[in-house]
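Minutes, project huddle
Topic: does the predicted pose make sense with flavin-adenine dinucleotide bound?
PN asked that the exact inputs be recorded in the minutes so nobody has to dig through chat later. Recorded below.
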Amino acid sequence: QVPLKPGRSLMDWIRLTKSGKDLTGLKGRLIEVTEDELSKHNKKEDCWICIRGFVYNVTPYMEYHPGGEDELMRAAGTDGTDLFDQVHRWVNYESMLKECLVGRMAVKPIAAPKANILMTLLFAGVLPEKKVLATSSAKDLSPRLSSFFFLFLLYPGFITSYDWFQTDSLITIVIYTKQKDMDAELVIVDCQDKQLRGEIIMDDHSYLVEVDLDHAVSEDVAVNIAEKVGKVEIILSKKDNIHWKMLGQPREGHNTFIKRIDRGLFFRKCKLVSKTQVTHDTKLFCLLLPKGTHLCVPTGQHVYLKQVIAGTEVVKPYTPVLPFSSLDFEEPPCHDGVHIYLMIKIYSHGLFTQALDHLQIGDYISVSNPEGNFKKSQVQTSEDLFLLAGGTGFTPMVKLLNFALTEVSCRRTVKLMFFNKTEDDILWRNQLEQLALKDERFEVQFILSQPSKEWVGKQGKISSSLLSEFMKRSRRDSKVLICICGPAPFTEQGVQYLKDLGYSQEEIHAFTA
Ligand code: FAD
Ligand code: NAP
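Predicted holo structure (tokens), as shared on screen:
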């Protein structure tokens, strides 16, 4: 992030887009853009970028871009889709840049499909092997065997298929993932208004079942998982006890197995059920998932919230925590599977957090599927866990702490270094101190960068000396994991200090955007 000039905030941008000013220079005309034409618009004062086939004139946006002009210029005159996906796939550019739309890229002749494209097409049911969504059973899969064999050669271990059957009252959709250690966090189901969406996460890929159901079902959805064999069952209750001839009509993403990064974010509306003050500027928001949703946010992952602010869709990431009664940490985490708790700092000039703060109990807000590259196995195999948090960078540490202290048996120590400006900024201070008293494996240290005169604890900013003093291993060669999260420069500097102290890349996990 770079500091933006005054008058160049996101709100200012939204105002400019609503002002009726011609931001493309084309007086509202949409044109077809060739690659040749695109490449000519590669200067700051004339900069076009293509994202997913649509071309935008981003020159008016330059000064408003939180990542800075240079970052935007990396894609000038080219297809910036990959770059965009790497940095902020979650930003709703269609809404943010709609007034900058120049037009579509001209269609190029299609080259012969490559193997992996072929695979996607097959899973998408586009090739002739596609089965209509009639009642299918194991025997119906046989005509597809040859193509499955072909796919297996291309992608061993990742062949996923689905099947469905019914009783008088239930519809059961069975997905065979062929993935061992399948667990509930890898299955996300949404069933509302006859629309069913079931997504299964398999490493960096996702498999999707997405249909308009043939008949109405009740809002209760059950998910059963046979972990060892990787079988997932989604069980729906029929509203009427009639025999279904087919499951329903396939939607766009139905029966596809693609990279997660290529799957758009899916949002469902959640109800705000409570808002509790944590510190002077930070609140705990409790959101209720819809009845037909099955979703558990894994440790170390975040979700995106979406709000329409002044007519523009704005999306921001937040990391769910546990309710603080769970900070007891004697029992394994109680994911009730129904609520999502978010600890959010309200910035006095923050576009999104101000809007969040204005939500009333009973209002709805859109919440995405979980994302993030943290793997719990990193915690499972380490003996000493060091957590370095700055401000709300504490949020991913909450579930991590809980997981490390309740579910990992080889754990020797968990140490949290919590950096804040003042005493009043420390989140859940009492709970953390209580926990340290109760569990001898856990230690917490608060470090203040702007302490009052009365503060007798540590002070300063993250530094090599503070880190080396605090981060003592329980054994000379113990297996260590260090997790760090906070303001971007805090995290960047922290990682550098850790490397200077001799910790390897594998021993460090930095939570970033
Ligand atoms: P903006 O309108 O973007 O900014 C307005 C002003 O607020 C800025 O000028 C600055 O003074 C201040 N400000 C805004 N953002 C930041 C920032 N990131 N750091 C320091 N000052 C800032 N926040 C939480 O409170 N809880 C979370 O659990 C959480 N999880 C996150 C997870 C990820 C993966 C990431 C990348 C960020 C997370 N954030 C979290 C930050 C959050 O996404 C927003 O950046 C934040 O809420 C500010 O949004 P805003 O629109 O209100 O502020
Ligand atoms: P803050 O209160 O502004 O700062 C917390 C502490 O970090 C303060 O002591 C502050 O010291 C210090 N700090 C800030 N910049 C620093 C720097 N350059 N070098 C060293 N220390 C620095 O923090 P906040 O407002 O709560 O913001 C939390 C941040 O965490 C946000 O940027 C948010 O996006 C991020 N976050 C990320 C994730 C994720 O998963 N990626 C999750 C949650 C939060 P001084 O300001 O006094 O210097």
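Observations noted during the meeting:
- The longest strand covers residues 267-277.
- The first helix runs from residue 10 to 17.
No decisions taken; revisit at the next huddle.
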